Here is the input.
Amino acid sequence: MINFTRMNTSRKKHSAAFKAQVAIEAIKEQETLSELSKRFGIHPQMISTWKREFLSRSPEIFSTKAPDEEAEKKESRHCMKR
Here is the structure.
């Protein structure tokens, strides 16, 4: 019988900013996935996944108002009423 032991390693949790940075570098295509993988310490498949997700979800950025823009509009309307 083969006994497999699992190493006590936990998955890395990367911030959204880090994922975006890696995705943007991949989109630029100035370096290969292999080079980016070595540079950021991430598997090339993960870089491809983040790039694909970044490109597919980027329209959301322009379809919704940023919180700062919304606050500015409310404040300007409030000032105009006075």
User: Anything to note?
Assistant: The CA atoms of residues 20 and 54 lie 7 Å apart. Residues 16-64 form one domain.
